[in-house]
Each structure stands twice: as C-alpha cells, then as structure tokens.
Request: fold
Amino acid sequence: MTKQHASIAYVRQEDAPLLPAPPSEVGIQGWLRKNLFSTPFYSVLTVVLGGLILWFIWDVFQWAIVTAIWTGSNREACLVPDGVTGACWPMVREKFPQWIYGFYPVEERWRVNTVCIVGVLALAPMLMPSAPYKTLNALFLLAVFPLMALILLTGGHFSFAFGSYVATLGLLLLTSVTVPLMAFGLEEGIRRNPHGLISAAISVGGWIGSLYVSGSAIPWTALAFGIGAAVFSLGSVFKEPSLSGRTAAYTWASIVIGIMLAMLLLGANLGLVPVETSQWGGLLVTLVVSVTGIVASLPLGILLALGRRSQMPVVKLFSIIFIELWRGVPLITVLFFSSVMLPLFLPEGTSFDKLLRALIGVALFSAAYMAEVVRSGLQAIPKGQYEGAMALGLPFWQMMNKIILPQALKISIPNIVGNFISLFKDTTLVSIIGIFDLLGMVRAGLKDSNWAAPSSTPTGYFTLALMFWIFCFAMSRYSIYTERRLNTGHKR
Reply:
C-alpha cells in the first residue's frame, strides 16, 4: 500500500449522533401497536372486543344518564308511558340514607358520622409512607378507636359485675404464666418466669373466686381482653429486647390498667342513648363486619401460619386442625351455626348478640384463609435467610419479626389484599341470618310499594354494585401502589 492510500484512512473520534426512534414505536401509537395490534389476530380481537365494550358503555350511559328519571317523589315519576325506561334516581335519593345507616335513629346518626370521620382521619396517615408519628397513630387505631367506636355506636351502658373485673385480671395473670410453661415446658418456663408458681396460684385462686362472685361462666370480656395479654406474654417470655425486665412490668401494668379503664368506660353512663345492634344496618354493618374481619384475621392468620410451620407437635396439630376445619366449611354454614346452633350449646339464659356472633365467625373463617396466604409467603423465603438469621444468633421471634415476616408479607401483598377484597364482598352473606347489611337494606328498600316501578330494582342493584366497586377498586389500587413502592416483584 502506498503512502498516498494510507493517508485517506478515517477513524471516527466521536460517537455518531443518536437518531430518534421511529414514530410507530413510541408514544400512544407505539403502545397501541405493541399491546393491541401486534399481530393480525390481536388486531381483529381488539376491534371486536373494543366494539362490544363501547356498545355496553353507551347502553349504560343512555340508561343511567340520557333516559334516566331525576325528579319525583313516588313511583309515578318512574313510570314512563312510552315504555322507554331509564334509571330511577329519585328512589335512590329517597332510600340512600337508609342504605347507609339502616334503622339507626335519625337523631343519633351524628354518632355514626363521628366514628366514620375519625376513622378516616386516623387511617389516612397510616396509608401515607412519609407521615410522622406512625406508632402513636397505630396505637390509637388499634386501642383507642375501637373503644370509642363501640361506645358511640352502642351508647355504652354495658353492665359488668364485680366478678367480671376479677375474672379479667385473673385471666391476664393466668395467661402471663401459662404461655411460658406451654412454650418451653415446666422447668424452662419456671426459669424464665421465676415467680410463675406463685403467680399461678394467685391467678387460679382469683379465677375460681371470680366464678363464685359473678355467678356465671367465664365472662366474654375476660376472654376478649385476654387475647391482648396473650400477645404481650408471647413477646415477654421470648425475651424481646423491648419487653424485658422493668419495661415488661410497666407494659403489663399498663395493659391491665387500660383494660380496667376500658371496662369502666363501657359500663359508665355517658349520656348517650343506647342503640341495639338490631337497629344497625346498611353500609354501617358492612363496614363493621369487614373491618373487624380484616383487622382480626391478619394477626390471627400470621400466628396460625407460624404455628403450622412450628416444630412443637401440639401447636402444629392445633393449627392444622383449625385451618383445615374452617377452610372446609362454607362461610354461610359458619354464619348459620353462629346464629342458630351456637345458642343451643350455651348454658341456659346465656346469649350473645347476633352481630357479635357473626363478627367472631367471619374473623375466624377469614383467619384460616389468611394463614395459608401467609404460609405461602413463608415458604417462598429462601432457606439462606433462615440460616443467616440463625448464624447471627437471633432468637426465633426476633428472626421472624425482623427478617422473615417482613419479606413474607411483602411477597404476599397481592394475595392478602385479594383476601381482604373477598371478605368485603362476602359480608353480604350476613343478610341470610337476618342482619341487614348494605345488600339487605337495598332489598328491603326495593320492597317499598311507594317506589314499585320496573326501573327501581335495576337502579338499586346498579347503585349497590357501584358502591362495592368503589371500595374494592380503592383497596386494589392501594395494593398496587404498595407493591410498587416495596418493589414486591423484584424487578431488575
């Protein structure tokens, strides 16, 4: 090669400028081509389904807006002579307060509004990741707000005999003693709780004495409040750093004092008119049943999932029996059993409120399903996570609380929220046992002869479906937001 030929060689010193992407690959046009018109078959399918969807939307729009009736005071307004009928919105406007409050006294509905407003204002900061004072807000939602809601909605006036207070205190003492003995055995349990035998003797004596004082079986208040003591005892006996030594004593004393104060407030006359749960109905009952089931099922489901994977045979057997029993029975059967058959097994003269029985049945039923959801998340955690936690010397509960459960719950977010949405929709089954939830109140309102028109029934059920969709869609969207924020999908 000559020198002249070598001189015309060219080497680029800079990168070539980037050219813009073709218009058909970016923007709305690119999205449509990629997702809806990528192949001839998908193009035809998109056109056909799109046409059906547009036809349905236009049909609903005409029925709900164009040909709908907007004014009137009775069924005559919704009877169109020419046969072209649309939605009967005057009926919805007339019945809507009843769909929300049920048979709750009109002059006392401010109490329902107060509970709803306080609940929303307290829940909103918990849903915001950057909101401050999350711990105090959580304590208010889990401890103070339920008590406030119960007093406002029912009016208080609960009658507690002296034996109820003694029985509650005895159950708290007994729980704090028996949990370590059951978890570790007699010798190890006494070593972890040196004063256990003395406390056990006092607890049993106080418990037996309370039965004579109250003259009845174990008060339901003692059983309910004893759950709080069980949670505390599980934390203290496994020597969590935050519940050890003097802190544990102060925490236990605070729980006892708080429970006693709660019982005093429930039994005090605060000037509120008593409202029986038989007068509740509509959206109020739907929210009470669903929120109670959601709040109770998650912690119970976590405990049952851990129990099913436990190495302790008794705990594992109990968890398996509980989960398989409740998952093998339809919810409607559980509700019928709690409403019709449960009173037959109780002592004569003993009865529970029908709504309370439904709440317990729904919570236990949902807890069994939640346990399997959480267990699937626990099984998805790699074995190395467990081994790494044990290599650090973490006790079982610290390992679960700090390493395993956060990952398992993060993985299970879609299934957990799916369970919550199913539970919210399944609350309509309580109408079968005579509790007028939102569906029951809509059905009752449609039987009013003053609004008996061909379009009344479709309008009522359309409004009902729209209300359920709003709540379920909100839960679904927040689940997607949380999933993206926590990067649950582990996207690269």
